[in-house]
């Protein structure tokens, strides 16, 4: 009886370890699915933001537009944050995606505020540095995504 209990305990432990192990294909699919679901919302939000900014008549009109955009972006980022991934590589993709989203929102907000209140030369330089960082981060994210797609995407063996 004692051996049977030890066997069952070992079996339960093995199942637990297997269940908790990472599944990179499933994790990558979660990120791909999230991206496909969120892309229309992101595009709509950005389009509405740009349209509202173009129709702003006074500098006071700009801040509520930015707030609405930032709130929508926070919801999108929060939905990404809720995705549970265990695989280290896929987690890196998720984390880099989240960082890129946050940086793009920050840049868009600063640029919109610059319409109402012109930037100093120092602020312009900082904003340009952020734009450069955004571009290089986007390129690195794209390369990581392509690599993971080859390893874990639908066409992967």
Automatic annotation (TrEMBL):
Q: Which residues form a coiled coil?
A: 83-144
Q: Which residues form the signal peptide?
A: 1-21
Give UniProt keywords alphabetically.
Coiled coil, Signal
- KW Coiled coil (keyword) present: yes
Specify the domain of life of the species encoding this protein.
Answer: Bacteria
Q: What is this protein called?
A: Lipoprotein HlpB
